[in-house]
Protein backbone atom coordinates (compact mmCIF):
# COMPACT_ATOMS: atom_id res chain seq x y z
CA UNK A 1 0.00 0.00 0.00
CA UNK A 2 1.50 3.31 -1.06
CA UNK A 3 0.24 5.83 1.49
CA UNK A 4 1.82 9.04 2.71
CA UNK A 5 2.04 9.92 6.38
CA UNK A 6 -0.32 12.82 5.75
CA UNK A 7 -2.91 10.60 4.06
CA UNK A 8 -2.77 8.05 6.87
CA UNK A 9 -2.96 10.78 9.49
CA UNK A 10 -6.07 12.22 7.86
CA UNK A 11 -7.69 8.80 7.63
CA UNK A 12 -7.26 8.07 11.35
CA UNK A 13 -7.69 11.63 12.66
CA UNK A 14 -4.22 12.54 13.92
CA UNK A 15 -1.40 14.79 12.73
CA UNK A 16 1.31 13.74 10.29
CA UNK A 17 3.80 14.37 13.08
CA UNK A 18 2.04 11.77 15.25
CA UNK A 19 2.33 9.15 12.51
CA UNK A 20 5.99 10.05 12.06
CA UNK A 21 6.65 9.71 15.80
CA UNK A 22 4.92 6.30 15.89
CA UNK A 23 7.00 5.08 12.94
CA UNK A 24 10.20 6.22 14.65
CA UNK A 25 9.24 4.57 17.94
CA UNK A 26 9.14 7.89 19.77
CA UNK A 27 5.42 7.79 20.58
CA UNK A 28 3.20 5.01 21.86
CA UNK A 29 -0.30 5.48 20.48
CA UNK A 30 -3.39 5.20 22.61
CA UNK A 31 -5.33 1.96 22.40
CA UNK A 32 -8.02 3.82 20.46
CA UNK A 33 -5.50 5.01 17.86
CA UNK A 34 -3.94 1.55 17.65
CA UNK A 35 -7.40 0.13 16.88
CA UNK A 36 -7.99 2.85 14.26
CA UNK A 37 -4.70 1.99 12.55
CA UNK A 38 -5.41 -1.74 12.64
CA UNK A 39 -8.89 -1.16 11.22
CA UNK A 40 -7.49 1.06 8.47
CA UNK A 41 -5.00 -1.62 7.43
CA UNK A 42 -7.50 -4.48 7.99
CA UNK A 43 -5.21 -6.34 10.39
CA UNK A 44 -4.70 -6.86 14.11
CA UNK A 45 -2.91 -4.50 16.45
CA UNK A 46 -0.28 -7.20 16.97
CA UNK A 47 0.50 -7.14 13.25
CA UNK A 48 1.39 -3.45 13.49
CA UNK A 49 2.90 -3.14 16.95
CA UNK A 50 5.26 -6.03 17.61
CA UNK A 51 7.10 -5.64 20.92
CA UNK A 52 10.88 -5.78 20.69
CA UNK A 53 12.40 -8.67 22.61
CA UNK A 54 15.88 -8.03 23.94
From TrEMBL:
Signal peptide: none annotated. CDD domains: HTH_XRE. Keywords: DNA-binding. InterPro entries: Cro/C1-type_HTH, Lambda_DNA-bd_dom_sf. It holds the Pfam family HTH_3. SMART domains: HTH_XRE. GO terms for molecular function: DNA binding. Residues 2-48 form the HTH cro/C1-type domain. PANTHER family: DNA-BIDING PHAGE PROTEIN, TRACRIPTIONAL REGULATORY PROTEIN-RELATED-RELATED. This is Transcriptional regulator. The lineage of its organism: Archaea, Methanobacteriati, Methanobacteriota, Stenosarchaea group, Halobacteria.
Amino acid sequence: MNLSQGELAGAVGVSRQTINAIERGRYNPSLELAFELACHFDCTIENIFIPEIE
